[in-house]
Design goal:
- This protein is an all-alpha fold and 97 residues long.
- It is 70% helix and 0% strand.
- The protein starts with a helix and ends with a helix.
Length: 97
Amino acid sequence: MIREQTLLKGHKNVESFLQQKLSCDESTTKELLLRVPSIKTASAVKLNQMIQFLFSQGFTADHIVETPRILGHSGKVNAKLKLIFLYREVIIFVIYF
């Protein structure tokens, strides 16, 4: 398991960590944190897990920046999202064929 200190190494705060993970500039990150203040208090470990999950599901950094509230959700929501993505793939498959 990745530790908080390891993730934040080289970053002065969560803001600079997100800036690097989402490849965005400082003003975009500040706006993101203003829109969803709870992200400031989230652990870097939790944020990293959610970002990695979203990337694995085909989301881009731009998608996350556009809808930053998703970063504030809990692990339970993460499991629900996995189900939603699974159903989405099944529905797309059925519609395609």
